[in-house]
Amino acid sequence: MIMLRYKNFLGRYSFDVEARIFHGQVINIKDVITFQGRTRLDVEQAFIDSIEDHLDFCT
Q1: CB 47 within 8 A of CB 41
Q2: pLDDT confidence of 43, banded at 50, 70, 90?
Q3: pLDDT score recorded for residue 15
């Protein structure tokens, strides 16, 4: 499990060997926010994009 932090949000992700994709979830909120990507850079950007989408939706 690899941990991420962005704007006080925490996420974690791992690699699914069978699907050959990284997938993760924001872990310190009640909403379910997931993200995925083919590379580590992709999944880290998807995490940031998911947080920004969530913040836009909430305001």
Answers
A1: no
A2: very high
A3: 96
For residue 40, how far is the Cα from the chain centroid? Answer: 11
- 3-state DSSP call for residue 17? coil
Q: Which two tokens stand for residue 19?
A: 């699907």
pTM: 0.92
Note the helical H segments in 1-59.
40-58
In the numeric block, the tokens 């872990």 are attached to 27
Confidence band of 1 (pLDDT split at 50, 70, 90) = confident
Q: Is 59 helix (H, G, I), strand (E, B) or coil?
A: coil
The domain ranges of the chain are 2-58
Q: Please tell me the total number of residues recorded for the chain in this structure.
A: 59
